[in-house]
Structure formats: C-alpha cells, structure tokens
Design the sequence.
C-alpha cells in the first residue's frame, strides 16, 4: 500500500501540481553516474536543458542547480534540507557546462557530505530544479514538476529495464530485462528460484524473458560483492492474448445492466494490451475467465458477468496491463481506501461497505443490479427564463453544519421564503478527500458520498422543484485530479502527470490558473466524455442546467502563464463551446448553460448571443463601494457590453471573492460616516443590493450574502467556514435580509426588471440612478453613494403625474419630470409608476424609506410633541447627540425643513404654520445613529 501520509498530502493540496515519482535515467533529461547512485558515494548529475520544460534551452547563460535532500521516506516529495536560496548567484550551486555541448550541464556531490545533516537523517532521494542566476528561467520535467533521484543506502542491485517490480506480457512476447548493481559484482538471475544466467565482475546483466505460457513468474536479480549481497524481484505476469470481439449493440461505456443477475462492463483504454475485472464477485483474483475481450480497433475492453445476486452491491476494479488498478470512470458510486472509514464511523452513509483493504489498493467502484428506481414526485414545474433567474450559490459543506443533502432539504423553506428561484450547487461530483469545495474531481458520474446517497441528492432536487426552485450544477470539466481513472490509465507513477499518449489529458496545462490535470477539449475522446457527463446529469438527476467552472480553459491554444493572451478571443474555444452547447440543447432544450469565462468581451458576446449565459464578476467594484468609495458598475448590465440577450449573471460576490460586508466592517471609511459600525455597514449594503437588483438580468447570491456574512475568505481559503445562521436574529442584519426579499419579489413579479423596453443608467457620479421603462410599469431608483449629505439633487423621471414610493405607498405628484431631493449617505428611493402592494406590515417602513436603522430610544430622552400638532412642534434630543443634523420630510422623502442644532441645544422648536396637514417624519442624525419619529400636522 502507498504511504498514507503521502496520499493525504496528494488528496488535500488542491492547488499544487506534484513532483513526479520517477527514478533515473529520466528519459535523458537528467542522468546520473553511476546509474544506481549511493548516498555515501560520489554522484555526477547530468542535465539536458533541451528536454523537459526547456526553459533553459540555448539560454547562453550560467545554469544553477536548486537541490534538496528528501529524508521523510523513499516516496516522499518533500525537500527536507535545502542548502541554496532561489535566484541567487551562489558559486557552490553553479553547474559545469559540458565542452562542445550547448545544453548539457553537470554537477557532482556526495549526498551524505554535501548536506548539513547533523542529526544523521537518511537521505532517500534528491529533489532538484534547474535555473538561471535570478530564477527567471527554469528547467523542470516535461510535466513541469521537480526531478527526483532515488539513492541506494549501501550496496544495491536494481532492475532498470523495466523500472519497478511488475511486468506484464502476452504469450509470444519477449522482453530483455536488465539489472544493474551499484558497483562491480557477481550478478545472477533466478527464474522461479532456478538459476538462469550469471556473470562475475560486472555492473549490469541482461536476460531475455520469453513469454511462452500464461502464468505468473518471479524473476530475481541477486548481486554479491565481497560480504555484501542484495536482491530485487520482478513479478512477470503472462497472459493469453485478449479475445477480439465487437462490443454488443446497445452497449455503452461503463456499467451496462442486462438483467437482475448480469452486467456488461466496457472500458475505453486505447493501446492497452489487456484488462481484467477484479472484485467481490471473484474474491479479487486475477482469473482467466475475467479477462476482458477487446474490440477489433483495440479501443475498448468489455466483459459480461453473470450469476450476480440481485440488489447486492459489489465493489470492483479494472486491472489494466496487469499493473494499473482503476475504478470504472462511469460508475455512480466509489469506494475509497483513505476516506470511506470516516464516513462509516460518522454514520453519514447508511450501509456503506468498507474498502476491501488487503485485497486491492487505489480507488474502486460499485455495481448493483436490480436497483429500485427513484420515484420522482415533481416532474412538472416552472422553469424561469434565463433573465428571470435569481440564483442562490450554495456549498453543501458549509450551508449547514450537518453537511448533507438532507440538511439542505431541511432549509429549502428558508430559500423559498427568501424568494430565490434557482439553487446553484457547488460541485457535488466525487472529489478527492471528504471536505472540499469540489473543484478537485476524480469521478464525474458519482455524487460525493460524504454528503449522502445518490437518492438523497435526487430527493433534494425533487423537493426544490416542488417549491418552484430549479437546480443548477456547478460542473468541473476543465480538469481532473490524480485519482481519476482516465488520468491513471496513462500517467507517471501512481498519481503523477498524464503521459503524452493520454487520450483525454494534456501532459502540461495549456493555460494559467489550472489545477489538477488539464483536459484536451480538442480530443474526440474528451469531447465524447464531456457530452456523456452533461447528458447524464441532466437525464438521471433531472438537474436544470450547469455553471461550467473555468470555461476559459477549454482550449488547446497554449497561453502558458500569459493571462492576457489567455483572455483574448479564441476561435477554437468558441467552436468547442458551441459544440458543447448544441449537444446539451439537442436533448435538453430548456437547460441553462452558464460559463465562468471572464474573457474578452468579443468572445463572450458571440457566445452570449448564441444563447449561453456568463458569470459577470462585479466583486471588485462592489467591495470598493462597500468601503465608501465610488465606482461606475454599468458593466453589470449586458446592454453596456453590447450583448443582444440578457445573459449576464452579474454578481456582487461568489465563492471565489471576499465578502462585501467583510469589506465594509473591516476597511470601510470612518468619516464623515463610520461604515465600520454595523448599522452603517448594513445601510451601505442595502444601497448596493437595491442597485444590484435594479439592473436588469439574471442575479446570483452567494450563500449568506443576504444577511451580510462577514467571515474572511482568504484566512483559510478552502477551509470550512462557520454558518452564522444566528445573524438572522440580529435586527440590523435582518433589515438587509428583508430588503433582499423585497427586491427579489419585485424582480420576479414585474417584467420591467427582466425585459425593460428602455434602460437608463446613471452610475458614474456619487448620486446614481436607474430608470427602467416598460408598458406595464416604470421604475425610478436613485441613491446617494457619497458619504456626505446631498442637498437639492435633481432626479429625472420618465413622465409627470403620480408616482409611488414603493416602500410606503405614498404618492408623489409631479408637474415636472425633474425633482430635487435631499439624500443622506446610503439613502435610496424606489418609485413606481403604478401603485404596488407595499412590503408586509411587519416590516418597518422607515427601514426602506431611509435605508437607516431606528436606534432604540427612551421617550424621556427623545420625543416629538405635541403630536398631533397644529402650530408649534418641539423636539427633545437625547443626551449625547450634539451638533445634530435634523430634517422634517413627508412620506415621499421630500424635505420640508432642515438644518443643524447648536451645541448644547437639546430642545428644538419649529413653526408648522405654513405646512399643510398630513403625516410627516422628524429625523435627527449624527455620525453614529439616526432617530425617527412620525407626527401628524392637523
């Protein structure tokens, strides 16, 4: 079995491409003399800069070795002792150039003497990377990883052809085996314990093994030098040639259930020689009757298995070329040797079988005949048009502390109350480890077991549909991680980079910001796989569409680390996405297709006009505005980009960015308004939210943004975040939640927010406005994004006549289309041309009229009297409010009186003789709080 600590490191470091588990001679990129280097003896390392990443090829420069000692174990990739700093002119690290060769460099050392190792740790390996003097150019493996050299600990013999301890052959094949000793010795080969060849005084010996009959053979190399002896064994498995037969009609790749007792398994593995099925049904034995047939084109291995017990779960694997153990890439359930035990112990998945430890290794998969079909209850439900979507992005892991599909079901009432009509689940496909964002996928057809069963996921989708909420799945098809069967079929070592012959993956990613291993989307193999994944989830789980992660990466145009080049218009990428979109729409014409593209506008425009939707990242602008700065965010509107269709899913925040409220509370301006105080931060975020929803087009909320979630993202970017459901009990944060409710309700109820006939955006100045016009309803939204009071601000309306303050229902009669308003910081108004139902009576209307909270006060310290009043009005200000601003406004927001009290003057007097009868609001405010009280003028 693999070292468990090493495996866990591989599973959890989701942003790192790991070094390769390679021994020398590394295809001549790096070679050593002697071939089997010893930690206590002199080693000459030769580096060929023309191979690998070729960053130093023909550099005409000094080349330095960056080297480290690996002491944690023979499979570790951790450099424990590193003597040289990167990017420094260190003479001791400078390599010698081979005379007459442009790209060959050498370096000599005795490892046990070279490294500062006072505790005498065993040096198992050398890790190395090569560089120029400042490190701006470097040489690494062809997979862009570190080089590693394994070190012998004393006298040793090793098989160097083939590398490793296993070899598989077909009957009739011959293989020349080579064994090398670390110094001259007597070397001999024994086959099945019988001597077959020997030689004395040599450092290497060859043996031609002829595969005459099927079976398993052990070839042992033994070396003797004086009193020292070492040996290594090679297991040679000889198989009969695979039977050639066409794949039966109607069969597809993966698991085909033929009856309650029979399955047909089909594995795509081009250019592999043979494959066996091993599993519970044959006690994990490699048996002739479980050798798979091969199609005439050599592409697919397949096998029928009968005699299975109905409804019984069987764990199984494919054993390819007698050495590679993988699960079925199309299976809907996996068995993991490292993480399933935690799921079992926590009772997270009823009846989950333990991994068959001791019988096999690496990830396996399940099959089960006669499964009971899931009974869908909610087949007919309304799917919003793309421009009507209000999407709630949700991570099952962090949405509820139970971290299950069922926990999300239990909170669907909350989402329904909020008003969203779509849930976007962050990736739920089987990923590496148990706790993850899900962007490290390993199996693309299997829901992750940590969250529950596949039927739990179906139940979640079905229950959401029953509430009129569609479900969009965050799909990761830019890359896969090392446990993926298609990676492991053609890769370096157990979990290393894909090799050049991998049908699906690039050896080195073609673009920046890639994680895992990069799919080659121009490959027919990848194209077919992607189409099958998409169709499967839309059909089997009845999801309503996809948000495709890192969609800009679906290209074979090599941009390297050049982000600007990667973002430019790419015609090949456009064609790839049109193909994917067309295939989705062929079988599922109502499916949503949303891309995380974030590329040049001309490319996004072409694809948006074709029908695809796009994430629109406005986080930077909204975070700046959340701090009190001013930004023009017109790019949140598809029309500002010149798009024909309203297919822009602009958002304030997503899982990838810091929270807007976090920005307000931690970095907000403190003068003249202190945004870092919660009530003022909520005011600011209400303002942002009203304008965000005022821009036509689909919307997205990242979970908990609706009540001002404020945990920092990058203190532990991928780590578990607390839920903070208790925030809903906070009156301040609840104001923000209620505003979200109201804006979502407006958007869902009126076409002017989704398909306006005219849009006028004035978003550059501190006083911003949005005017939307439609034959059914016009709206005018305006607000103060500045931090000071704005007096006599002219606001334009589309027409004269009666307008209605949405949050109060009060009328504003216009004889002129331009009206002056006075606005406090973060104050906004929303007027409609028709009278609409006002928010529920349980909501304080002032919360929306002014966007500023009512601070609790004692009647003895703050009062407005007499009430009602006929002439004089008196106001008692509370202690602590000095140099207070005040105003009297009517219920449309128009200011009747205004000014500032003198220091020490706690009682204000007003003459209301010239004010007409009606209901008014007296308002007093300073930098800390705002106080309101209604009064009646008779």
Sequence:
């Amino acid at each position: 079995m693999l070292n468990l600590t090493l495996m866990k490191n591989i599973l959890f470091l989701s942003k790192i491409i790991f070094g390769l588990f390679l021994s020398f001679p590394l295809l001549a990129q790096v070679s050593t003399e002697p071939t089997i280097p010893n930690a206590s003896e002199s080693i000459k390392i030769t580096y060929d800069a023309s191979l690998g990443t070729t960053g130093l090829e023909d550099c005409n420069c000094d080349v330095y070795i960056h080297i480290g000692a690996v002491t944690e174990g023979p499979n570790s990739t951790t450099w424990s002792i590193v003597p040289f700093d990167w990017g420094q002119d260190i003479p001791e690290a400078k390599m010698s150039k081979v005379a007459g060769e442009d790209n060959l460099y050498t370096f000599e050392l005795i490892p046990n003497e070279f490294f500062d190792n006072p505790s005498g740790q065993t040096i198992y390996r050398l890790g190395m990377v090569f560089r120029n003097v400042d490190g701006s150019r470097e040489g690494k493996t062809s997979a862009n990883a570190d080089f590693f050299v394994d070190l012998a600990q004393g006298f040793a013999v090793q098989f160097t052809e083939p590398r490793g301890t296993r070899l598989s052959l077909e009957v009739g094949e011959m293989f020349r085996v080579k064994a090398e000793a670390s110094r001259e010795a007597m070397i001999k080969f024994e086959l099945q314990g019988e001597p077959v060849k020997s030689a004395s005084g040599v450092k290497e010996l060859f043996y031609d093994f002829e595969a005459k009959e099927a079976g398993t053979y052990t070839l042992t190399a033994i070396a003797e030098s004086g009193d020292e002896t070492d040996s290594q064994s090679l297991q040679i498995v000889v198989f009969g040639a695979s039977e050639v037969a066409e794949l039966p009609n109607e069969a597809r790749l993966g698991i085909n259930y033929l009856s309650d007792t029979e399955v047909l398994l089909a594995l795509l593995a081009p250019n592999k020689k043979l494959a066996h099925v091993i599993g519970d049904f044959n006690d994990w034995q490699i048996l002739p009757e479980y050798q798979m047939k091969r199609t005439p084109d050599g592409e697919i291995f397949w096998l029928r298995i009968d005699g299975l017990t109905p409804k019984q779960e069987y764990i199984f694997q494919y054993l390819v070329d007698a050495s590679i153990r993988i699960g079925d890439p199309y299976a809907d359930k996996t068995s993991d040797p490292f993480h399933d035990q935690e799921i079992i112990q926590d009772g997270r998945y009823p009846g989950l079988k333990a991994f068959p430890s001791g019988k096999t290794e690496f990830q396996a998969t399940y099959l089960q005949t006669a499964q009971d079909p899931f009974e869908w209850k909610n087949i007919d439900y309304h799917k919003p048009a793309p421009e009507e979507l209000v999407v709630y992005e949700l991570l099952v892991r962090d949405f509820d502390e139970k971290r299950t599909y069922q926990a999300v079901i239990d909170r669907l009432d909350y989402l329904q109350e909020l008003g969203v009509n779509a849930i976007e689940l962050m990736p739920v496909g089987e990923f590496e480890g148990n706790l993850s964002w899900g962007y490290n996928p390993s199996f693309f057809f299997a829901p992750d077991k940590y969250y529950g069963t596949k039927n739990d996921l179906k139940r979640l989708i079905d229950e959401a549909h029953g509430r009129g909420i569609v479900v969009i799945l965050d799909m990761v098809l830019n890359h896969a991680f090392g446990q993926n069967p298609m990676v492991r079929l053609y890769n370096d070592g157990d979990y290393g980079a894909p090799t050049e012959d991998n049908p699906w993956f690039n050896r080195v990613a073609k673009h920046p910001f890639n994680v895992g291993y990069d799919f080659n989307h121009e490959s027919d193999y990848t194209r077919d796989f992607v189409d099958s994944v998409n169709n499967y989830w839309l059909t089997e789980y009845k999801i309503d569409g996809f948000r495709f992660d890192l969609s800009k990466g679906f290209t074979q145009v090599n941009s390297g680390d050049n982000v600007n080049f990667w973002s430019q218009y790419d015609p090949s990428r456009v064609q790839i996405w049109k193909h994917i979109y067309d295939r989705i729409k062929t079988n599922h014409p109502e499916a949503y297709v949303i891309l995380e593209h974030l590329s040049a506008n001309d490319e996004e425009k072409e694809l948006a006009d074709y029908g695809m939707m796009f994430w629109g990242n406005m986080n930077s602008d909204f975070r700046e505005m959340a701090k009190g700065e001013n930004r023009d965010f017109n790019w949140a509107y598809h029309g500002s980009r010149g798009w024909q269709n309203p297919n822009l899913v602009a958002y304030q925040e997503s899982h990838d960015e810091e929270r807007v409220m976090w920005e307000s509370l931690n970095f907000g301006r403190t003068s003249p308004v202190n945004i870092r105080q919660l009530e003022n931060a909520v005011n600011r975020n209400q303002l942002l939210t009203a304008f965000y929803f005022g821009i036509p087009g689909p919307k997205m909320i990242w979970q908990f943004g609706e009540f001002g979630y404020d945990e920092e993202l990058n203190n532990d970017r991928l780590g578990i975040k607390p839920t903070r459901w208790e925030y809903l009990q906070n009156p301040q944060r609840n104001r923000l939640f209620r505003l979200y409710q109201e804006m979502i309700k407006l958007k869902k109820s009126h076409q002017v927010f989704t398909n306006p006939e005219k849009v006028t955006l004035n978003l550059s100045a501190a006083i911003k406005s949005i005017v939307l016009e439609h034959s059914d309803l016009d709206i005018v939204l305006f607000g103060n994004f500045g931090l000071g009071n704005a007096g006599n601000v002219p606001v334009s309306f589309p027409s004269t006549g009666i307008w209605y303050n949405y949050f109060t229902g009060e009328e504003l009669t216009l004889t002129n289309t331009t009206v002056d308003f006075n606005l406090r910081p973060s104050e906004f108004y929303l007027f409609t041309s028709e009278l609409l139902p006002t928010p529920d009576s349980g909501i304080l209307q002032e919360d929306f009229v002014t966007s500023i909270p009512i601070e609790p006060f004692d009647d003895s310290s703050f009062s407005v009297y007499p009430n009602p009043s006929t002439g004089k009005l008196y106001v008692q200000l509370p202690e602590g409010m000095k140099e207070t601003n005040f105003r009297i406004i009517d219920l449309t927001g128009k200011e009747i009186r205004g000014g500032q009290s003198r220091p020490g003057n706690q009682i204000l007097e007003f003459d209301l003789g010239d004010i007409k009868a009606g209901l008014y609001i007296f308002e007093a405010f300073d930098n800390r709080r705002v106080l309101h009280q209604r009064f009646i003028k008779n």
